[in-house]
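Customer ticket, subject: "Can you confirm the structure for PglD N-terminal domain-containing protein?"

Message body: Hello, I'm evaluating your service for our small team and ran a test protein. I'd like someone to confirm that this is what the system normally returns, since I don't have a reference to compare against.
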Amino acid sequence: MGEVIVIGAGGHARTIGNILKLMNNIKIINFIDCFKKDNEKIVNKDVIQVENIITYIQNQKIQDVVLALGDNKKREYYFKELNKRGYNFLNVIHPTAIIEDNVKLGNGVVIGAGVILGAEVIIKNNTIINNGVIVDHESIIGNNVHIAPGTKIAGRVIIGNNTFIGVGSSIIDNISIGKNVIAGAGSVIIKDIEDNAKVVGVPAKRI
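Agent reply: Thanks for trying us out. I re-ran your input and got the following:
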């Protein structure tokens, strides 16, 4: 049975913990974070407060980690730091997800409950595809992206690195979204979006 330490103890960590319980041959050692409540547990596992997450991980006899951090910047930082030290990032996939055979997944990907990934979709490293998301054929989702619950992404959409797409958003086909974009909840994206933009609305407009 593979043993993992989960980095993070917020709301997203609870989602991760529940998925890991459903996966075969995975044993959670504990959850770690720089902040915690007294006697806090997640899926009956201890949450340990540590001063330095990287140092703590290096002192453990494990090679597999899970990043349970919803914030793209924090998740990117720990992915880079631990990756260059040779750690492995587990893909966390809910058993109810529907994933076509020719989908390509990077490392450290999270696929939530009820997700549908269509033909030839590519999900790159350290990306969260949250509960109930649909990603249709040939779409490419970049590194360190977070697609929030209930989002629907049509075919041949490209989403750049470090982008956040808010809950319940919709993206029509053949759209290109740049890196470091933030799309607010319920956005309907019908035009390309440049790097570093913040958009919201129906249709989505820059703010």
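A couple of notes from the result: The domain at 2-90 is CATH 3.40.50.20 (Rossmann fold). The first helix runs from residue 11 to 22. Feel free to reply with more questions.
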